[in-house]
Design brief:
Length: 319
């Protein structure tokens, strides 16, 4: 696909994956309309969380918008974009345990408004971001047809968004693809286990392994995840879900050891309490993605951790 001068809309553009996607699209010459939360207006010196001044200057348009608010649908519908990437979400799982109503309402209402805007505007392709959390725990690699068994309010909200998107394809013919990324890590990520462990190791603090440490995650480096998004955008928009994941899962205790190895730090690894609703095993079966697009992850976990560490050391204000 030739992205040069192609009009694109990205919600959650100042988030972790969204900001990397925006950079990749700009590098390919796309005309990017970036949608960021209204609260981003208060960020310091022209940084919108993860968007640099250089990136902001290169955008076709920057929209400060509450996607759950009443203005979202008409504003999005008037963007003129032909390809839409919907990544905006309240994605911090622990927040859904302390504030379930807020997380559930935000995620579902925002996605509904994006779908309604797309129905009005008629883009060629809408990619709706779901989550691997929709699956819950499964004993082996998880394929798209496996049962959805959410274990937290966040996961349940993403199931609702996932199924809502499919219903808009079936009921209204909306041209869309559902994207289910497994755990993603890399530069600019500031929560979840990988950045937490890197920060604590470099800060001389112990790494806390919640539960027994045998719970596993399929960890994909962010540039590989973005590559998958771009490849999926080239497929016919048939309402199908696609997993993004390496197919290799890593135990959390083993991840702690790998973080210590890559940082060269000697801090203790300590047990912590098990987390409510924690998924025991997440391992992607990304056969559908590979067969449809030829995608393959380019980074091993060791290489990704090294690159993540280099970025942290180049960004002294991050810790």
């Amino acid at each position: 696909m030739d992205w040069n001068s192609h009009p694109v809309l990205v919600t959650g553009a100042d988030g972790f994956i969204g900001s990397h996607l925006v950079d990749a699209l700009l590098d390919r010459g796309a005309l990017v309309t970036a949608v960021v939360r209204r609260t981003s207006r208060a960020q310091v010196t022209a940084r919108f969380r993860n968007l640099s001044q250089r990136t902001v200057s290169a955008l076709h348009a920057l929209l400060h918008l509450d996607l759950a608010g009443p203005d979202a649908t008409p504003v999005l519908a008037s963007s003129g974009a032909l390809t839409w990437f919907h990544l905006a979400a309240d994605a911090y799982v622990p927040a859904s345990l302390s504030q379930p109503s807020t997380v559930v309402q935000t995620n579902i209402t925002s996605t509904l408004h994006v779908l309604e805007a797309a129905r009005a505007a008629g883009p060629r392709h809408l990619l709706v971001t779901s989550s691997s959390e929709v699956y819950g725990s499964h004993p082996g690699p998880i394929a798209e047809g496996d049962p959805l068994e959410p274990a937290t309010p966040y996961a349940a909200s993403k199931v609702a968004c996932d199924r809502l998107a499919r219903s808009y394809h079936d009921a209204f013919g909306l041209p869309l693809t559902i994207v289910r990324p497994f755990n993603c890590y890399g530069p600019r990520h500031v929560y979840d286990v990988v950045p937490l462990y890197l920060a604590r190791a470099l800060g001389g603090l112990p790494l806390v392994v919640n539960g027994d440490g045998t719970q596993t995650r399929d960890l994909t480096y962010v540039s590989d995840t973005v590559d998958a998004f771009l490849r999926l955008a080239e497929l016919p928009p048939e309402g199908k879900p696609y997993n993004i994941g390496t197919g290799v899962d890593h135990g959390i205790a083993d991840l702690a050891r790998q973080v210590l190895a890559v940082t060269g730090c000697s801090v203790p690894v300590r047990p912590g309490p098990a987390r409510p609703g924690e998924v025991r095993k997440l391992q992607a079966d990304a056969t559908a993605l590979r067969e449809a697009t030829g995608w393959e992850p380019r980074h091993s976990l060791a290489e990704g951790l090294r690159l993540n560490l280099e970025w942290i050391r180049d960004e002294p204000g991050w810790l």
